[in-house]
Amino acid sequence: MNIPKDPMILLSYLNTQLRDFYPSLDELCKSLQLDQNDLIQKMADIDYHYESSLNQFV
């Protein structure tokens, strides 16, 4: 899956996908064949962390 490279655009993309299509980060990663740890690290690099109760990066 080709995802945005820019971290802020990636943040928006991920949160939109989570809001509209996936009940969890795990489901998103499985469906799009993405490395979950890599995404978590990329978001942590810009001070965002996945909040499972909200199902979004905050």
Summary, kept brief:
This protein has 3 helices and 2 strands.
Question: What do you see in this structure?
Answer:
It is a single chain. This protein is mainly α. It is built from 3 helices and 2 strands; from the N terminus they run H-H-H-E-E. The protein has helices spanning 7-20, 25-32, 36-44, and strands at 50-51, 56-57. It has a two-stranded antiparallel sheet with strand order 1-2. The radius of gyration is 10 Å and the shape is globular. The model has no long low-confidence stretch (mean pLDDT 97).
Task: Label this structure with key terms.
58 residues; mainly alpha; two-stranded antiparallel sheet; 3 helices; 2 strands; 53% helix; globular
How many distinct helices? 3
- Percent helix, as a range, is 40-55%
**What topology, given as strand order, has the largest sheet?**
1-2
Structural class: mainly alpha
The ordered string of helix (H) and strand (E) elements is HHHEE
Q: Largest sheet, if any?
A: 2 strands, antiparallel
Strand content: 5-15%
Rg is 10 Å
Would you identify the regions where 5 or more consecutive residues have pLDDT less than 50?
Answer: none
Q: What is the average per-residue confidence, as pLDDT, rounded to a whole number?
A: 97
Total count of strands = 2
> Could you state the oligomeric state of the chains shown?
single chain
Gap between N and C termini: 23 Å
Principal-axis shape equals globular
